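ARCHIVE CARD
Drawer: 12
Card no.: 0347
Subject: one protein chain, sequence and derived structure
Cross-reference: see card 0346
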Amino acid sequence: MISEKPEDGCYAYGMFLEGARWDSINHMIVHSKPKELFSDFPSIHIMPVLDRIVKAENTYLVPIYRVIL
């Protein structure tokens, strides 16, 4: 668990992948293991960027859902 705030940006944690998993050796999303519906996604550091032009090519928009228990 992350205990300190970053100097810039924020940390996102507690996310899961559905139908896929994170390969920590190759640092990429791969097919899920058999009979594995959900897998943990590692914490990520999100950095803000000003005046960025978003390229539509080679981009996949990923929906992220927040669940508060």
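Annotation on reverse: The longest strand covers residues 20-23. The beta strands are 10-12, 16-18, 20-23, 28-31, 38-40, 44-46.
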